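Posting for a labmate who doesn't have an account.
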Amino acid sequence: MDPLTATGVGDVTAGTGVIQLVLQADPIVKMVMLVLLAASVWCWAVILDKGIRLARLTRKADRFEATFWSGTSLDELYRRLAKRPDHPMALVFTNAMAEWKEAPPTLDPETQRNLLARVERVMALTIDRELTALGRSLQSLATIGSTAPFVGLFGTVWGIMNSFQSIAVTKNTTLAVVAPGIAEALLATAMGLAAAIPAVVAYNRLADSLDRYEARLSTFADELAVVLGREADGLRVA
């Protein structure tokens, strides 16, 4: 009899592909791998969704600010955008202008200050609401990044434990006995890292992009408040 066949090494070598490792894995290790695979798919779905959305919103903000500072009157711009503001910066503008226009005309300085304070509050609430919606699911990347390695480590420990149990049962310490369990363990570790590394990198980059977008919205809100304040001053002078 061939020594390789006698020890089972030939069978193990034939089944060392990734798919074979998954199919031959212990049920607990299979469950760990499925969890990590699902986490990885979710991670990439969030990365693509948020990355594409932030890039699109940045382009729309560029076009909006170019129009806003082009000399177009606030009333004209408001009429254009009031029905369908399709990005947060336009929504900040339309909500502020709606609050501004709903107030009855007045020359009283105190009333105008209160109106400007309400407009600023409306803009702040709009920014908070839009950023909350935009940042939804982003925290899951941080969760995956911090937990996936430990889930993979659990699969690793379980696979190594199976290897030692195989040694105890067969009383055989050859590589053919311990290799399947060790291979399962290493695959679980690799899958944990494959889910965690992109999640951590993407979370940091997307969170930074979201912070910069928030700062841009806040800056625009301050600028719009200044413009409206000048209009109020113009009414008093007139």
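Reply:
Got it, the structure tokens are right above this. The radius of gyration is 30 Å.
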